[in-house]
Amino acid sequence: MKKLQFTLLFFIFSLLGCEENNLLPNINEEDIVSVDNTRLDKLFYNGDEEVFHSEFLKYPELYENFYTKMIRAGSKNELFNPLLKDSLTLPILREFLNDSTLKLVFEAMEEEFPDLTLQEEKISVGMSNYNSLFKRGIKEAKIGTFYSNFNATVIENDHIIWIGLDMYLGGENEIIKMLPPNTFPQYYKQKMDKKFMISDVFFSFLMSYHYEHLGDELLARMLAFGKIAYLMEIILPFEEEEKKFRYSKEELDWCHSNETNIWRYIVDEKLLYESDPTLVDPFFLEGPFTKNFGSESPSTIGIWLGYEMIKDYAENNDLSIDGIMKEKNMQKILKYYEP
Fold first, then answer.
1. What is the pTM of this model?
2. Which terminus of the chain has a lower count of CB atoms within 10 Å, N or C?
3. Which residues share a beta bridge with 145?
């Protein structure tokens, strides 16, 4: 039954939005990418330190990252020294897995994510669309889920895309509400939502394999990020546009309504070719809003505006996706932008 459900979902997601997507070829059988999901999060629910240790050893990059940085339990040498397993590593893991507060988090994860079929299918379709665009010959996408101790949404270790499920429990979850506000301000808690998981996975993936630095100027950074956002729009036609920017619908509407004002401010303040980080960084930093644009503005509007520039360029030129991604002449791209 699950296989039938999986196939049906793939068919539905592969059709959604394709009629509006001229750059996306039809998915052929050789383009279809299956998903192999390693659910290490279940090891936290089970609480067996022996099993936990033996399973995590199969993924040494993630294990080192988790043990030494996320929970700060000890050093790499201690972790991978078999002579210290019984006297040091297992006792530390036993205490960690049986912590009463952490058990509440593990239970919340188990309750929120008993099944990830929907997410797996969306990743499968997105990666299949990616395959049809770039002909990379990918047959299987390896992903995994775990508890990150509230340190990571998506990371790539051991050639696997790992998803920290604790970062997607939802802003209204009681566990999330209790996180310290100095580390997790309210605007951030509101975005700790599973609706952003698919976009986070593909943003991380595309940044790793397709991001190209074009310069430190505001325009260069907007266009570099805009290309990544444009790629996401093509390969994830079934995801709402706002999710690809980690926005709410209201935040995206604000961007569209104020696009002319954003552009006028950049031009009037002579910021387009500015490279001073104190002036440029606010356009890309996460926060409750973007500096100088008021409390109703969303953060990272530089990424969104860059996407609009790339989209206008693509819509006015008969180019392949390779042609769009490889274009480095910023003036050539900017010529077609109409705020």
1. 0.92
2. N
3. 39, 163
